[in-house]
UniProtKB/TrEMBL annotation:
It comes from the Bacteria. The chain crosses the membrane at residues 40-60. Belongs to the peptidase C40 family. Keywords: Hydrolase, Membrane, Protease, Thiol protease, Transmembrane, Transmembrane helix. It comes from Kitasatospora aburaviensis. Residues 176-296 form the NlpC/P60 domain. Pfam families: NLPC_P60. InterPro entries: NLP_P60_dom (IPR000064), Papain-like_cys_pep_sf (IPR038765), Peptidase_C40 (IPR051202). The keyword Nucleotide-binding does not apply. Residues 1-34, 102-121, 154-175 are annotated as: Disordered. Residues 102-119, 156-175 have a biased composition (Low complexity). This is C40 family peptidase. Coiled coil: none annotated.
Length: 296
């Protein structure tokens, strides 16, 4: 006959039902259904608590482990702002940034006139091009050629075939007059088609545009993008100035550089991007950030 020893040590403090005592010996049993449910609920609570710590789904990150920015707004990769407690936070989503800052931005700048609603300005704001449609409603695009098409090609920011650029009014001329000559030549090519191995005057590829632009300023550069980087003095993002060169590498190395553009200031650059596009002014974004930077 089997006797259950209900007074054995551990029997009274085993609410999960994972241990049973028979014949004076403790044996491990499968958890009861109620016990499994309680454990499942506890695990969900832990996961939910962890998600709350990182702001899951809000698009906003904390600056706790990062150095505080110099000012609110776009820093080249994200938008910075202070929350209601005065703590720095960041997001890569422009709409979230506007919502958290009441629609203002110290980093966003455009040479067009201020819009009558919401503080929006026509032109580049640091992450996208704004314009009004035929109904007077505000719309935006990240593609400069689409922006030109929707605005009839006439923008105080820039216009194809002209030496006036999106940055001509919002950035100081290059410190070196020869470099500024190169910048102005590149801007005069706006609207011309990308042409593989093109050296002008009817079309250019990225390194062809850069070489021909700096040649007008009396500065000789090699023909290929990675060779052009080798001919520059490397600089950091914080040191960028108008006329510096931006490079993009497919593998993060200097040998892997396959694209080059001329920096204009205010996070903008002029480039011959790829086949099927025209020479245009584009903006630095977190999704397409240059891997290398150099000063001719």
């Amino acid at each position: 006959m089997t006797t259950v020893n209900t007074g054995a040590p551990g029997a009274a403090d085993d609410p999960t039902g994972q241990h049973a005592v028979t014949d004076g010996r403790t044996r491990t049993a499968r958890p009861s259904r109620a016990g499994r449910i309680r454990r499942g609920i506890a695990m969900v609570a832990v996961v939910a608590a962890g998600a709350g710590v990182i702001g899951l789904g809000t698009g906003v990150g904390t600056a706790a482990a990062e150095a505080a920015p110099a000012h609110a707004g776009w820093d080249g990769s994200r938008y910075w702002f202070k929350n209601s407690k005065g703590e720095w936070r960041w997001t890569t989503h422009y709409d979230i940034y506007r919502a958290r800052t009441g629609g203002s931005s110290s980093a966003a700048k455009s040479s067009s006139s201020t819009a009558s609603s919401g503080g929006i300005k026509q032109g580049w704001d640091g992450s996208r091009y704004w314009f009004r449609n035929s109904k007077g409603e505000w719309r935006w695009t990240t593609h400069y050629d689409i922006y030109l098409d929707r605005t009839g090609g006439g923008s105080s920011s820039s216009s194809a075939g002209s030496a006036t650029s999106a940055s001509a009014d919002s950035a100081e001329p290059a410190a070196d007059g020869d470099v500024e000559t190169a910048v102005q030549f590149a801007l005069a090519q706006l609207g011309k088609p990308f042409r593989t191995a093109g050296n002008g005057p009817d079309g250019y590829d990225c390194s062809g545009l850069v070489q021909q632009a700096f040649r007008r300023g009396g500065i000789e550069l090699p023909r290929v993008a990675n060779d052009q980087y080798a001919a520059t003095t490397p600089v950091r993002a914080s040191q960028l100035r108008r006329g510096d060169l931006l490079f993009w590498s497919t593998d993060g190395t200097a040998r892997g550089i396959q694209h080059v553009a001329i920096y204009l200031g205010n996070n903008q650059y002029v480039e011959a991007a790829r086949p099927g596009t025209n020479i245009r002014v584009s903006g630095i974004s977190s999704g397409y950030y240059p891997t290398h930077m150099g000063r001719p």
